[in-house]
Amino acid sequence: MNRVRVAVLCSGGGTNLQAILDSAAAGAVPSGEIALVVSDSAQAFALERAKRAGVATCVVDKKQYPDRREREQRILAALEEAGIGLVVLAGFMTILSEAFTKKYEMRMINVHPSLIPSFCGPGFYGLKVHEAALARGVKVTGATVHFVNEVCDGGPIIAQKAVEVQEGDTPEVLQKRVMREAEWIILPRAVETVCKQLLKD
Ligand code: GAR
After folding, report:
1. Residue 112 annotated as catalytic
2. Ligand 1 centroid – CA 126 distance (Å)
3. CB 3.0-4.6 Å disulfide test: which of 16, 73, 112, 182 passes with 90?
């Protein structure tokens, strides 16, 4: 069966990558093949997860390539060489340039740990998102998967899932609940949904 070759871009722990790998191993991503994991940090545990799953890895370390243009060119070269049809940003902590996003228009998705348009855009990433949600006192938060365009966290929304904030939550506790109850569920599903659609196009 024809499959879309998927690259997952990470910067850290890679629990969202793991959710995709587990889902694929369970047969829930039949339209996609996880073909490459790219990290912009040589220290990212996501690389270890990829190796354990037998997925090829590519490191374009920010320290080694401080110039964003050069870094993006190296990532693009790796994606092209691997014949990637869908790019998944899963805990990738660098905002990509318009030149990059244009190359994968409607073929690049991102998971964000809030219900967009709340707590998103430049400066809202990782734990900071949950700190802001708790500071504002929202009672419901969640996660969003969306297509990536030139506006940070601004592309068309594919899926969202709400998660309740509980009394006494710390940013760390809330982050874990949002991952477990929302991100790890909607991201692998969105990968399959988009791959399936790309195969039809
Ligand atoms: C996840 O919560 C992801 O949604 C978030 O960083 C975490 C990465 O965890 N991404 C962003 O904030 C991007 N704006 P992971 O490396 O364990 O998947």
Report:
1. yes
2. 5
3. 16
CATH of the domain at 185: 3.40.50.170
Q: 1 alpha carbon to ligand 1 midpoint, in Å?
A: 31
Say how far apart CA 110 and CA 144 lie, in whole Å. 8
H-helix segments, 2-105: 15-25, 45-52, 68-81, 98-103
Cβ 154 under 6 angstroms from ligand 1: no
Residue 119's identity, in one-letter code, is F
Q: Rounded to the nearest 10 degrees, what angle do helices 45-52 and 15-25 cross at?
A: 10
User: Model confidence over 98-151: pLDDT tens digits?
Assistant: 999 999 999 999 999 999 999 999 999 999 999 999 999 999 999 999 999 999
Domain of 124 in residue numbering reads as 4-200
Cα torsion for 195, 197, 198, 201, to the nearest 10°?
Answer: 170
**pTM of this structure:** 0.98
